[in-house]
Design brief:
cell membrane; EC 7.4.2.1; AAA+_ATPase; 247 residues; membrane; alpha/beta
Length: 247
């Protein structure tokens, strides 16, 4: 662990109209740490995720990535944003491009990599997520689980400092969830810094260094997975876990 956390949020507030979706959020994520954010629907988890690469603006507070405050807009923001990989619920792949083209477009356009180098790296990443044999197919020819693994490879191709996952398995059929979680678990074990919003409690227990529990726009508690699942300190978390874990 280094002196400066990789990602910090200080007193971050965000409203959507009257709705106060993030309330005084303070969070620091260290290099190589896997932080899993859980909580009931509407608790602000996805908004938190989206503010970290400024897909959502904030009303007040400061967000820094690797010691640099998130710029308002322009080139600085594009540069910083390319350090923050994002994997969404709905894979957001380019339908008219092959899998290989989807994974190489960012490194070629944003990182200015040569095509041959970008393709070589893309094929390594597709192999890493278990779908190198699908490189020349189009997204519509793949299952949801395969598309999400392409999306992970695409995010990794940018060589991000931190990878954000916003409910990456919630749009998948149940039998495809595990193949995506397996890829995420292996990334976690390799030391990738990750912030993961998910409902997958098994993944949280297995792969997280820290669980952050949110409710009503606030961080209610944070703890190691064992402490959180076995001995939550807040009534809110106890109620949430009893509902989730009884299913």
């Amino acid at each position: 662990m280094t002196a400066t956390p990789l990602v910090t949020l200080e007193n971050v507030d965000k409203h959507f109209g009257e709705l106060h979706v993030l309330r005084g959020i303070n969070l620091a994520v260290e290099r190589g740490e896997v932080v899993v954010v859980i909580g009931p629907s509407g608790s602000g988890k996805s908004t938190l995720c989206r503010t970290i690469n400024r897909l959502e603006t904030i009303d007040s507070g400061v967000i820094t990535i690797d010691g640099v405050p998130l710029p308002e807009e322009g080139r600085g923001l594009a540069r910083l944003r390319s350090d923050v990989g994002m994997v969404f619920q709905s894979f957001n792949l380019f339908a008219h491009k092959t899998v290989l083209q989807n994974v190489t477009i960012g490194p070629i356009k944003v990182r200015k990599k040569g095509k041959a180098d970008a393709e070589k790296r893309a094929l390594e990443l597709l192999d890493r997520v278990g779908i190198a044999n699908q490189a020349n197919k189009y997204p519509a020819q793949l299952s949801g689980g395969q598309q999400q693994r392409v999306a992970i490879a695409r995010a990794l191709a940018m060589e991000p400092k931190v990878l954000m996952f916003d409910e990456p398995t919630s749009a998948l059929d149940p039998e495809m969830v595990q193949e995506v979680l397996d890829v995420m678990t292996s990334l976690a074990s390799e030391g990738m810094t990750m912030i993961v919003v998910t409902h997958e409690m098994g993944f949280a227990r297995r792969a997280a260094n820290r669980v952050v529990f949110m409710a009503d726009g606030e961080i209610v508690e944070q703890a190691s997975p064992d402490d959180f699942f076995d001995n939550p300190s807040s009534q809110r978390a106890k109620d949430f876990l009893s509902k989730i874990l009884s299913h």
